[in-house]
Every structure is written in structure tokens, then in C-alpha cells.
Amino acid sequence: MTNILQIPQESPAVKSQPSPKVWEYLTNIIETQGLIHFSLVDPDLNFQSIRSIRKCVEIATRAGTDAILVGGSTIADQFAVETVVQTIKETTDKPVVIFPGNINAFTQSATAVLFMSLLNSRNPYWIIESQVIGAPQLKLWNMETIPTAYCIIEPGGTAGYVGDVKLIPRSKPKIALGYALAAQMLGFKMIYFEAGSGVNQAVPPAMVKMVTDVIDIPLIVGGGITTEEEARQIAKAGASAIVQGTYIEKECAKDGGAGLKRIIAAAKQAAMEQKD
Ligand code: 1GP
Questions:
Q1: DSSP, res 250
Q2: Which of 40, 152, 158, 210 meets the CB 3.0–4.6 Å disulfide criterion with 165?
Q3: Looking at the predicted structure, is the pLDDT value of residue 184 above 80?
């Protein structure tokens, strides 16, 4: 097994920057296909096996997902993250991007990291303090980081609870727009609107539309997206990416990925039509 605490023989040059390969890959997908589909894998091995992760990733890759996110709010440990990332890399050629739930969510084996700030947390740890602790390690690894503003919308799920969040009400798209504009003005490259993993209400398309009509940076939408119609409506409203975790974990194997393939195709088609 790779030693995840491996220290490079020579320190990286102070000003060297990793090449933005994943960022270029993702923006090219938005440009040419309208929308990115992310499959989220939770590295918490208490609830799933390496074998089931392998199977889900295989199916998602065949169904047309673009990249695999690895992360969760109740993370296990760094060795589990490393094991899961290695498994995914053996299974797919898609980029493996860390979607960190905390400072122990990183591994050098990942292709890139969504470097996130939870903007509507009430606890500075999730807004900037955990990032201060994590950043030097990512620098040492010369890891590609994509600055992403993370905002949690009602109902919020576990992420909202763990992140000590002042949830954005579903009925208040103007508040969501304020966050999105602030994120853009602060220089974030992407915004992630999260409704919470496994919730029964995805981010409202009307909120997505109000935000994407105004901002210029890509909006990722995740949490509670399980049907073709929900994916289509969110894409039609202007999202640049959708994330599916629970559906991938619990549903997509039931029909060998046929339903997932339809969801991805519908979302990409709606996004392209919305651009025209
Ligand atoms: C959670 O947005 C993601 O962080 C995905 O949510 O598990 O509901 O698809 P689901």
C-alpha cells in the first residue's frame, strides 16, 4: 500500500503551482456537454464494502459519469480514504476528486481537491480554520485545489448539522443569490449548493435559476437528486454540475445503471438546450 504520509525527497519550490488539469477537464465538459455529472462515494467503510464501491464506480463510469467525488460528513479515517481512492483509481479512468468533510479527508493519491469553505456555517472552523490546517499538507503534495464555496440549503441533512449551518431557506432564493454573488466576488471558482445527502427535497430549480441568471461561475447542485425529472429541471435552471451519491450507492446497481444513464443523458441534454 502506498504510504500516504510519504514526504517528498525535495520540498516543492515555494512558488510552484500544480497544473490545473482537473479544472480544465471540468470546464471543458461544461463547455462541450453543458453539465458535469459527479458520482459521490462516501469513504465511510462502516456502511459499505470495497466490493460494492468498486461495483458502483464501474456502473457509474459505464453510465457516463464524469468524475468521482470522495467525501462525507462522518468520515472514517485517512487510511479508509486512501483505500477507497486507490480502489476507485483501479476501477475507472475518471478523475478522483476529494470533497472534504474535514481535515482528515485528504490523500495524496487523489487527482484534485474541492478546496471548500462552508460559507453559511456559524462556526469559523468550517469557514476558514480547518482550511488553514489542511492547506500546508496539500501544498506539500502539490495537489490541485479548486476553490469552491459551499452553501447548505434546507433541509441540509447531516452536512447541515455537522457544519453548524444557518440553513438557507428553500423559499428564499434571494438569500442564496447573495451568497453566490459574495462567493464570486471573493474569487471562488465554483459554488456548491447542497441540500444534504439523502434528503427528500433537492435544491429548488427556481433558486438555481435565480442564481445562475446572475453569476458567471459554475454552480454545482447536490443532495436528494434521484430522478431523471429532478436532474433535468436543475440542469434546465442553469446548474453546471449535479452530484449524486445516495442514488449511486443504493439504486444504480438495481438496473445495471440503465436509470443512471438516462438521468445523466437527460441532465446534459437539458443543460445544452438551456445554453442555446
Ligand atoms: C451530498 O450532494 C451530495 O453531499 C449528494 O447527495 O447523496 O442525496 O445524492 P445525495
A1: I
A2: 152
A3: yes
C-alpha to C-alpha distance for 139 and 12, rounded to whole angstroms: 8
21-275 has which CATH code? 3.20.20.390
Residue 96 pairs in a beta bridge with 68
pLDDT, one tens digit per residue, over 118-154 is 999 999 999 999 999 999 999 999 999 999 999 999 9
C-alpha cell at 99: 470533497
Query: Quick check: CB of 39 below 6 Å from ligand 1?
Result: no
Residue 246 CA, ligand 1 centroid: distance in Å: 6
Distance, CA of 155 to CA of 198 (rounded, Å) = 10
* 231 class by beta-carbon count within 10 Å (0-12 exposed, 13-18 middle, 19+ buried): buried
Give the Å distance between the CA of 72 and the centre of ligand 1.
9
223 lines ligand 1 (CB under 6 A): yes
pLDDT tens for each residue of 55-84: 999 999 999 999 999 998 776 678 899 999
CA of 41 to the centre of ligand 1 (A): 9
Can you give the residue ranges of every domain in the chain? 21-275
CA of 13 relative to ligand 1 center, distance in Å: 37
